[in-house]
Amino acid sequence: MSAGLDKCFSPARLNGLELRNRVIKAATFEGMCPGGVPSERLYDHHRGVAEGGIGMTTLAYCAVEADGRVKSDMMHMHEGVRPHLERLAREVHEAGCALSGQMGHCGNFSQNDKFQGKRPLGPSRMLNMGGIPVGLPFAGAMTHADIDRMVGLFRDAGAFMKSVGFDAVEIHFGHGYGLSQFISPKTNKRKDEYGGSLVNRMRLPLRVLEAVREAVGDDFPILGKIGLTDGVKGGLQIDEAIEVAGLLDEGGIDALIPSGGTSSMNPMLLFRGDSLMDGLLAQEKNPLMRLALRAVGPRLFRDYPYHELYFQDGAKRVRDRIKRAKLVYIGGVSTLESLETAMQEFDFVQMGRAIWKDPAFVNHAQENPYYKNNCNHCNICASLIGHPDGVRCVLNQPI
Ligand SMILES: Cc1cc2nc3c(=O)[nH]c(=O)nc-3n(C[C@H](O)[C@H](O)[C@H](O)COP(=O)(O)O)c2cc1C
Questions:
Q1: Which positions are catalytic?
Q2: CA of 143 to the centre of ligand 1 (A)
Q3: Distance of CA 10 to the CA centre of its chain
Q4: Inter-residue contact 129 to 178 (CB < 8 Å)
Q5: H-assigned helices in 27-165
Q6: How many angstroms separate the first and last alpha carbons of the chain?
Q7: Overall pTM > 0.85
Q8: C-alpha of residue 359 to centroid of ligand 1, in Å
Q9: Which CATH number fits the domain 3-111+141-264+304-370, given the four candidates 3.30.497.10, 3.50.50.60, 3.20.20.70, 3.40.50.300?
Q10: Whose CA is closest to atom 10 on ligand 1?
Q11: Residue 96: left if φ>0, alpha if ψ -120 to 50, beta else—which one?
Q12: Are strands 98-104 and 56-63 parallel, antiparallel or unpaired?
């Protein structure tokens, strides 16, 4: 085995946690929590990934409150899901794998069918990007009391997740979600100490990091997913993103995962490859929604051809800026060559689509030097996040 793969498949430490190897399943929303409660498919999925040899799997989108979701078929962190999460942690641990959970809040595009007219809140009053046509058309601006409350929600979610058996937490600072709405100058137009300069726009994210650290303790790993660029005019750009990474590093984060794009303004930047539009059109039954999708689709789902390691240059800049935190590479790893290259530059690798294609990627790659994953980046998996049966790889299980 090459030195790169040898490093990849050897045990490694992330703060106080020992992982059996350096491959982490990326947070990929599973769509397997009907009514906000895990279905058997969610356990099967993560147990399968754990049995497939990966070092740590990540439960996607653990909303820090019920109102921080885009629909009620997403889980939020509260006592009602304790037995489910304890079971998930137990099953993942039995397979020798660690469990992380991605903590997030949708901020200005939060909506769900149980909202009963509640207005989503973000840094500034603006169009509710996710709220058309379901929620209220405008999101409101958070007051100082709302901001303090948000810090408390992340703190409580961190304490809860540790108490049910998670081995790590991943704070979502990217992809246009609530905390990145504060970081991005596109969505943060505040005039107070939470808006304006980057230091001000980072005030809430850094308070959240501090609160989660207080809740989980010094030796518990906290990862953070960040954006390298929003990919929109007036949004976060790479030079500021590097400073975001530096501030989180100084704030005591254990690992950074540099991604990019935003799910409501430029989603293809984070995926690359085939447009999500075809998959979404195939599922949409409402003729008006189909029409709307055809109208906005080409502008929303921009063309970014797929190539392996597409965030490599940005990730190297982050790596060069940070002093303490580990760098977890994400974005376009599906071959052994890419794993090797990533291991020459970075500490860990997160993989999303390739693991949906083959949950036993790690075991297979260790057994077979000619292993091929064959994910073709059709991105139909990503278009299925709202599907009633949840996400799947259609190469394995046609719809
Ligand atoms: C089905 C699916 C769901 C996703 N859901 C999330 C999510 O909940 N949170 C997140 O940060 N990224 C999400 N992503 C993005 C991935 O974490 C990752 O950034 C992206 O797929 C690129 O990595 P890859 O090339 O290894 O797939 C999702 C991706 C897919 C394919």
A1: 177
A2: 31
A3: 25
A4: no
A5: 40-51, 82-94, 144-164
A6: 37
A7: yes
A8: 15
A9: 3.20.20.70
A10: 27
A11: left
A12: parallel
> How far apart are the CA of 352 and the centre of ligand 1, in A?
6
Query: pLDDT 10s per residue in the chain (399 long)?
Result: 899 999 999 999 999 999 999 999 999 999 999 999 999 999 999 999 999 999 999 999 999 999 999 888 999 999 999 999 999 999 999 999 999 999 999 999 887 565 566 888 999 998 876 644 456 678 899 999 999 999 999 999 999 999 999 999 999 999 999 999 999 999 999 999 999 999 999 999 999 999 999 999 999 999 999 999 999 999 999 999 999 999 999 999 999 999 999 998 999 999 999 999 989 999 998 999 899 889 988 889 999 999 999 999 999 999 999 999 999 999 999 999 999 999 999 999 999 999 999 999 999 999 999 999 999 999 999 999 989 999 999 999 988
**Ligand 1: residues within 6 Å at CB?**
26-29, 60-61, 102, 172, 175, 225, 259, 270-271, 330-333, 351-354, 381-382, 385, 391
Helices (H), 99-237: 144-164, 178-183, 198-201, 203-216
339, amino acid identity: L
Handedness of CA 189, 211, 267, 317 (dihedral sign): positive
Q: What are phi and psi of 387, to 5 degrees?
A: -75, 140
- Ligand 1, atom 24: nearest CA belongs to which residue? 352
Q: Which of 28, 275, 329 to mutate to test the pocket of ligand 1 (most atoms within 8 A of CB)?
A: 28
Dist. CA 398 → ligand 1 center (Å): 20
- Please identify, by atom number, the ligand 1 atom nearest to the C-alpha of residue 351: 26
The total number of residues written for the chain in this structure: 399
